[in-house]
Amino acid sequence: MWRVTLVLWQLSAFAWTPAAQGEDAAEAITPQDCSLDCIRQGGAACEYCRITRTELRKTLGLNSPEKFGSCIPWPCLELLGGEDPKICQHYVQAPNEVTVEFVHEPNPESDTVVVSWKPSYYGIAFLRGFQVSLQALGGSSSACQLFLFRRNLSLPASHAQRVYRSDPFPGLALGSQYAVTVMALPVPEEWEKFYHSEIISTRSCAEKNGLEKCKKDWYPRHIEVQQNGTTVTVTFNLAPPDLGIRSYFSLCYANGLKKYTDIKPNSSKNKTHHSYELKDLEGGTNYTCEIAANEMDAVRKMFNIQVPDIRGDGASADSHKPSLALLLPLCIAMVTVLGVGLVALARRKPKSYMKTLQIKPDIIKQHEESGAPEEVVSLQSNRPTPPRLLICYSGRDGAAHVRVVMQLGAFIQQHMATQVLLDLWDSLSVSEEGSMAWYSRQIQESDFILVVCSRGLNRKTEPPKTEWGDEDEEEEEEEEVGTGLDYSIYSSDTAVQLVREEVVRAKARGQDLSKYMAAVFVYSEETDVPAELRLASHYALPRDFPLLFSHLHGVSLHRPGSYLKINHISEEGFAKLASGAALQSAIYEAGAEMKAKRQRGEGAKQ
Fold it and tell me: How far apart are CA 92 and CA 234, in angstroms?
């Protein structure tokens, strides 16, 4: 009879378990207020407890900084290991399904989040609690919370479906990125799978409060354009009065020319809309215009204006045209003179090359007859802005190599119609945002990324020397890096690693890799290009300047019956320009420095 009773009890237990699990999963478990004494004694009211800074100071006599909250290294050993050290020596897998939820925050300038997660069923019987931290990317602000279970609690595997929640993390800056890390306790030594990290972004001011309440994010949303010949009238909606925006500006550009208009509406006449005029616009031209509040980092609203080509009547236009009979003889004479000059130049040039290279005349003649004519190609005029190119590099090859990178950026920006982004040119923004945040933003916003590869690019970053380290090694490292280049080393090298991961990820997904490029100078070798970047296009500079130009602007170097010739963007012609000569000099100095370093290295090995 007792066997039948036992079987019925087991069946009822199995039937009840899914319902219990569903109930656990439906309601998240929030932390309780309880003391460490209750946790150590195993009280029933201390199942999932928050540990406050006050409790930590009372127990350990440790006054941790405000931003670290109640988080301490090895919290299980410090707080629970005194009674039974063995309970803090088991392996517990990292939590799963970490999510972040935005909760109500009355302050319009900040956000508040709550983190939730599920424990892993691997080692759940030995789980002692969690530690949740929030770290601002590119900044120093951080926050941390500690939660512990009572000492004698042993969770079954079914509780892996429970959802645990943290306390709110208030005061997070809007429009910022944070790293959320949930750590399972205990954390034994030599164990790497005890935490789970996620990158989150707080809401922007416009997402939280609405566009009409955010001065920095506000922009005109309603724009109306009326044209009367070459005069254009633009009407746009004004910002709400409580934002305090009193002036605006408009910027129109086409064919390399810009037209700036300062706008100061009179709020006494109209508080909702304002109209202004754009005069003296060129006929037959498409303009790309921007309008924004005259505030720092204001969001710009773009719109297009197509100005028609307005001319006078046919009679007056024809009356001002010169006679074809007068122009024809003049054109014939000019063509004749130009042809004679080209023939003389063409005959003179092969003779000089024959003397230098000792090439047979019949081969030159055959080459001239089969050669493709040069072609003049204009860049795309419908592109509103030049392509944005981010240059990444390694500072480990010394100051001379960094100078080469700077001169390369100057040459590309001046003579390749490209906007270059370089951390050395934008040190203020890098300092404000933090190097990782700055590079992450530029990688996402750039049209192209060029990694300048060198010998030091593949060298691993070594930890900083301790005060009892070898002084000779420190001096050698300072000599190799150069004074003041530590920032470039650790920031740009990290960005290169991000780019390498982006290339591998794009390749795995079958995406276009044209955004990524690698380059080496003559003093570097092809093997200096990392294996990941070899998946993308890579060039040898300055020899491949035409190929780089073709890549940036999407123009073909060779077409049927013609080829593209770019003035001063070639291995022979770039040094004729001032910035090209500076680049050539920097390449020569960097090559000499690299050669001297290799010789010193070989001498030290011998």
Answer: 64
